[in-house]
Amino acid sequence: MSAVMGEGTVESGKGRSPADIYAVMDDVRLHRLRPTHEELYPVPIVLVPSLLSKWYVFDLHPARTMAGFLRDHSYDVWVVDWGKPPRKRPTPGFENYVDDYLASAIDDITGAVEVDQVSVLGYSLGGVISTLFSALYPDRVRNLITLTTPIDFHRTGLTATWARYFPVNPFVDFWGNVPAWWMRAAVTSSSLSRVVKLWTTLGGDEADPHRKEVLRAVRKWIGDGVPVAGEMYRTLVRDCYKHNMLIRNTLHIGGRVVELSSIEAALLTITASDDHLCPPPSSQALNRAVTVEDETAIMVPGTHLGAVIGPKAHHLLWTRIVDWLEHRSGHHPADWYGDIA
Asked: Model-level pTM?
């Protein structure tokens, strides 16, 4: 892993917290938030964003930064930045994201701070990648947190119905990587009324300068889309949404069958009560599929996005994550920060 930007810098207009940024492979990077405490919990936490949107949903605004909240509670916080998928064909598939990108990123993190395991928090489809990694590399993950993450894809409502009829093979064959504009239109058009509710929740009264600033940041993030890797998308629609292979333990990644019962990490699944993209039963199916005794499921008010960065996320979600992690990340913060070559 090598530095791609100067120490303590952030990308212009993106993350709000000072961070060191390092290259992993292809366009994938790691953002390591600079700590605000000299002593940190021994087990670092890796935030894994969705593959459909940019990483800085975790660090959107000074008042809406889950990453900053964790950092301020003595956690060593790393955020995966997927970048843009390569355009060459075949485009990246699930095996690339699990075995190459996330595996390499976690290798770099554990090597930097000299630990064997990390905590992984995956949001939406980033949670799917995190779950796959935890099942295939169970010795690398100490704690797994899935945040509005579909596992039983047949319980995702209209999205599962749509997938039964969507011609994903010719679509991917034509486009290669799925254009960002198409994904944004598909998600937005799925429920216009919920989008309106989201704007109201996040922005509120635009006469309030603070809330107007937050809404501006949200709009910028939503408009800052990225293409979706074609082969990953093909597997997602065909094998997950259409045939529900993940929960059935028949999904193959890199020639291996993903067995959810192989997960050894302590598990926390988080759902949002008004999430139409990933209804709570879809996520909570993971709790029934694992065999670990240390498993917890919680539900917070809000939508798929509002639960993460809404005005109540601070005390409804972030504090509960911190409380759950506290005794699972080492009993006391340690005064190491690690050196990165």
From this structure: 0.90
